[in-house]
Amino acid sequence: MNIIVTGGAGFIGSNFVYYELKKHPEDRIICIDKLTYAGNLETLEAALKKDKFKFIRADIADRRAIYRIFETERPDIVVNFAAESHVDRSIENPEVFLQTNIIGTSVLLDACRKYSIDRFHQVSTDEVYGDLPLDRPDLFFTEETPLHTSSPYSASKASADLLVQAYHRTYKVPVTISRCSNNYGPFHFPEKLIPLMIINALSDKELPVYGTGENVRDWLYVKDHCAAIDLIIRKGRVGEVYNIGGHNERRNIDVVKTILKELGKPESLIAHVADRKGHDRRYAIDPTKIHEELGWEPTTKFEDGIKLTIKWYLEHRDWWMGIISGDYQTYYERMYDQRAKMEYAKI
Ligand code: NAD
Ligand code: TYD
């Protein structure tokens, strides 16, 4: 099978590329990524050495480039991870979120219609459901929870979900959608809570906790998310939405304290800073549907996953130091001449 993975140079997309190459060595993976600030080709260095992997730099909103890639690569499955993904950036400047997350998704859906694929999978987020109150631990997001977004990021992801469902109903594009809770693990860009706190703690810098730190996120180790998507694209029912999460709810302040404890750093590094505008209070997924239909369940508990993640950041200083110094952004230019398998679609 030919599988297009968009956004494969980012956090979850790259983990998915490695998951698929290992689990299904018979399949070809074609990664499309624009290499925005969040995309890092160094992350895909090991994949680039494999015959079954190909990297193409392109913008998912560039219709000509996307059609050309579909024409040449003839994908059976398309998994769309490509997105602007950081809530704080969406509050600063929403426009690029609309361009990539909505227009980009619509271009991919048009390409899927034109070249009739077997499956288009949209990687969505639990943030499309809005938030839950802190004093109702009995409430969870199910697939039936109404969409009720808070940030420009979540509004753009919800818009994309609606388009995906519209293309299924109107044009019979064979789609699935997954809505996952917060991920953590290797290759997580250090603007997000967990990698930022690990790196700041290692550098004895302040750990900026928004507001009181009582907001709750439902953490899932990234490999468990990849396993769920792999199941959905191969066995999930067309037209369906699947929630993904592993009942690993933690308050931000407790996550930060756990990281400090693991690293042997003092809690005096914690600095409570101004709260995020419109800050969602609690996310919590009910994963009953994917468990009952596809037999998925998470394998990594938060206590173990956070240790694995900290260990990974300790052992891969070059990776995140390259990001902090900005070196990773010239990697494509440095490597482009040497790598025959990469193609450049003009962006
Ligand atoms: P990320 O920001 O780490 O990576 C996004 C990738 O998309 C980058 O490689 C970037 O270069 C690429 N990209 C951005 N705009 C593009 C464009 N116009 N064309 C082509 N490529 C483009 O994001 P992530 O955390 O890996 O998230 C991946 C997907 O999973 C997103 O759709 C996000 O909404 C969803 N998601 C993330 C989480 C989470 O906790 N990180 C949870 C649930 C769902
Ligand atoms: P983040 O990793 O940005 O993911 P999301 O907003 O998609 O949940 O943030 C996770 C939580 O951590 C969220 O409640 C905001 C909070 N946060 C901080 O307190 N300080 C920070 O520096 C960051 C980046 C996030």
UniProtKB/TrEMBL annotation:
The keyword Cell wall biogenesis/degradation does not apply. It catalyses: dTDP-alpha-D-glucose = dTDP-4-dehydro-6-deoxy-alpha-D-glucose + H2O. Belongs to the NAD(P)-dependent epimerase/dehydratase family. dTDP-glucose dehydratase subfamily. NCBIfam families: dTDP_gluc_dehyt. Keywords: Lyase, NAD. Gene3D superfamilies: NAD(P)-binding Rossmann-like Domain, UDP-galactose 4-epimerase, domain 1. It is an enzyme of class 4 (lyase). Residues 4-307 form the NAD(P)-binding domain. Its EC number is 4.2.1.46. GO terms for biological process: nucleotide-sugar metabolic process. It comes from the Bacteria. It comes from Selenomonas bovis. Transmembrane segments: none annotated. This is dTDP-glucose 4,6-dehydratase.
